[in-house]
Structures are given as C-alpha cells and as structure tokens.
Amino acid sequence: MRINNLELNTDIYQILDKLFLELKSKGSPLFSKGYKESGDYLMVQCPYHKFGLEHNPSAQFRKSDGLFYCFNCKEPHSLPDVIYKCLGVNGRSWLLENFDGSDIDRRKINLGIKKPEKPKIEYVDKEILKKYRYFHPYMFERKLTEEVIRKFDVGYDKENDRITFPNKDENGNILFIATRNIKNKFFHYPKDVDKPLYGLYELQREVKNGVEINEIYVCESMFDALAIWSWGKYAVAMNGTGSSKQFEQLSKCNYRSLILATDNDEAGIKSREKIRKNVKGKLIREIDYSSYGDCKDINDMSKEQFLNAKIKFM
Is the pLDDT of residue 284 over 60? Predict the structure, then answer.
C-alpha cells in the first residue's frame, strides 16, 4: 500500500486496527465505533469536530491510499495527518515504525552503474520580461485582472502581436516563455520543452506569504487557470491534457484537494480520467459543466457561473 511517498507492506485495515487499539489503550474516545465498510471507503467518526464524539460517522478513509475526508468539516487529510491529530506524533514515522515499509523519497538503489549527469538547465534571463511588460485589451477579454497579470508576469510581445506567459520551475526560474497569437489564437511553445505545472511556483509563493491553500483547480489552458486566480480561487494549468511529470507534481504537492476543470469536450474528459488514474493521495472532484450547457471551458464561463458551479465526485 502506498501512502503519499511511503510504500508499506500492509493495508488500510491493519493500519486502522493498530491506530484504534493504541487510542483505546490511551483512553482516547477517538474512533471508538471503529469503521464501517462502504464500497471503496471505510466510514468513521471524525476526530476533527465534536471532539470525535459524533454518533454517526461523517468521515471516510479511502482504502487504496488512506486519504481521509469528512463531509461535515469539508477538509481532506492524509493518513499521516490524521495520525498526528490523534496521537500527537509524526504520522510518517509512526507508520514506518509499526509497518515494514520504505520512504520512496529517501530510498536509493545502487546497481554499481554511474548515472549520467543531468544536463544543465539553461534558464531564460528574467531581464527579457521587461521587453514584454505591456497590457493588451485581449488580456482583459480573457478575464484576467491587473493583479494576476503582474503576479504571473503575463506580457505582450508588440513585435509579434502575442501574449507572453513565462513558465517557471518551483524556484521561480523561467524555463521557457509560451506565447499566444492574438489573431489566430494559437499557443506556441519552444520545441521539445518539458512543460511544468503552470502556476505551481505562484501557489508556493502565496503559501510562503501566509495564505492557507488546501484546494486547487487543475486546468488545461493557462488562460483558464489565470481566470480562476482572477476570481479569487487557485489553479494550475497543464498546457495540455497532462503528462507523467505533471501527474507526479500533483501527487507530491501539498494541496490536499484537486478540482478537475479541464475542457468540456472529449479530450477534457480523457484528461480527467488520466488524472484520476495517475494522481495518488488526493481528494479528487470535478466541476459539473452540465449546469451550463454550451460552456466549453472555464474561460467560457462567467464569474458568477464559475463561483456557483457544482463540484461533484466521480
């Protein structure tokens, strides 16, 4: 069983049995009613409200990876987080101490073969952004605000009549600059680039500035993600329907809940299926486009439609 980046030789039943037994030995009332089977989930009392003393279970653990979600609190948590809440100890360490497993982040395999050195990344000089620091009416037609334009360094290339989008790594280094032609509305990317999650650096910067973020939207287009930011929510864009690297980034990111907001077409549906299949350890829901008829993507919605859109489990 894999929980976050821990590979454990056990299952959710043995983990919960051990946790519940330890809580009982300490005289704790948490999880006093045990768990109840419900398809792919185990229903339990929530330890995060009513001091864990609710009569009917309102929370669940997902059997595959231990992801916890309470339908009253509306806050998803990883299993290590729940262990910390209940026992006051490091949840990862508790799992490793009680079950035979390994930390994938720290595990190293040495076959006596020297790994080839990774090629040095050549970042784009940030000075070039000064060349593009212009506003264009098309930015606002696509529902961006000045604040978001500045936050993401979105610019305008006067010479080629294109909107510019710096794509950054998690440390803020510019990997490449994508562009959108205003007339033919095509996106352009440098040849053979490995696309990161657009917006991941800006999310991390918000967190460092003290903003608490537990939930993010996942989009195909940068314009869709930027519109969501302009409407007061948080999002990343895949610049497509998703890659293995991006799925890994989503699995490892610190945001517990993902809302899939890919396009309302066949490619978008397949993208959502790939995300659900490949992203682990997250509570995954999606926007219900059916309420809005012909809206083909987020940018096709009004702000009111987006903020009132239904979010559903699949």
Answer: yes
d(CA 206, CA 255): 12
Distance separating alpha carbons of residues 25 and 271, to the nearest angstrom: 46
128-314 has which fold? Answer: Dna Topoisomerase Vi A Subunit; Chain: A, domain 2 (3.40.1360)
Tens-place pLDDT, residues 113-137? 455 666 678 899 999 999 999 999 9
Of the candidates 161, 157, 191, 155, the one whose C-alpha atom is nearest the C-alpha of residue 176 is 191
Distance CA 84, CA 92 (A): 9
Q: What is the largest CA-CA distance in the chain?
A: 72
Domain-by-domain residue ranges, the chain?
A: 2-103, 128-314
Fold match between domain 2-103 and domain 128-314:
no
Count CA within 13 A, CB hemisphere, residue 56: 3
- In a 13 Å sphere around the CA of 213, the CA atoms on its Cβ side amount to 23
Q: Is 287 helix (H, G, I), strand (E, B) or coil?
A: strand
DSSP code, position 127: G
Per the CB < 8 A criterion, the answer to whether 201 and 172 are in contact is: yes
Which CATH number is 2-103's, of 3.90.580, 1.10.8, 2.170.290, 1.20.5? Answer: 3.90.580
Q: How many CB atoms sit inside 10 A of residue 269's CB?
A: 16
Which H or E run contains 235?
A: strand 235-237
d(C-alpha 234, C-alpha 227), whole Å: 9
Q: Output the CA torsion sign for 274, 277, 281, 285.
A: positive
Mean pLDDT over 188-198 rounds to: 91
Q: Collapse the DSSP code of 169 into the 3-class scheme (helix H, G, I; strand E, B; otherwise coil) and give the result.
A: coil
198 neighbors 165 (Cβ within 8 angstroms) = yes
Distance CA 310, CA 288 (A): 5
